[in-house]
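cron nightly-structures :: item 1 of 1
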Amino acid sequence: MGSLSSFPARALVPYVYTPSSEELENAGIGIGRTAAQLLRLGQPQEAARLAALAVRLQPNDERLWSVLAEAQLRSDQLKAAAASLAKAKSLDPQNAGLWFAEASLALRDQRPDDAVPLLDQGLRLDPKNAGAYFDLGNARIMQSELLQALRAFEQATTIKPSFWEALNNQALVLFEMGNTAEAIRRWRSVLEIKRNAEPMLALAAALNNQSSGDEESIDLARQALADDPNYVLPGHQENQLWGQKLRQATGVLLSEPRLKGAVERAEANADPKSAE
């Protein structure tokens, strides 16, 4: 028997596994699903990292680009989100949701002139989308196109009668247009659907504007400020698209001596960032 050295050496051939395109596609979709789950769990930064990997594995799937865009939006990566949305839209231009998402990004960036045509195109594809009409109304308020804003909000509640935010914004617009009585009627309708601080304080201001020192307005204001102290801040009101007339009426109401304690507590508890 010969020595071990007489046996030929077995050559080590490096082997790199190359997955098939089908395996890559499946991996990308699986990673994308995990990213979407992380989004639902409120972990947008982790979701964005995974979704970025998913689109590298499967670059022609608009669903993965949409997940990436959503994750980037929620983690305040606005420029990256815009690029991801544009990519998704190029892959699936008939997807109304992508037009709406791009419009939402434009609104967040205070660009209503860009948002309106995006919303219009999305609504041509999906004309029964109440949320898109709500966004269109907000864009029109930002453009000071109050009548068009009112029509958009009314279209939203025609599609979805329980859409209290759209009904609330109808009242915001009506008050700015000088139709206080109808604004009050609609704010009362909102409160039948949802006892929320915004319509509560807005209604209080409108009632006090009609009849100074109105007892109901004092009670409503106290409850509103206790529920959401941020509404004591004019900057927060403005961020919620309250017009100048309503902000002025609210300022008059909150100077009422009977509200001094409620106003001071709200000012102490309000988040200044909500007014930025």
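cron nightly-structures :: done
The chain has three domains: 25-92, 94-156, 162-276.
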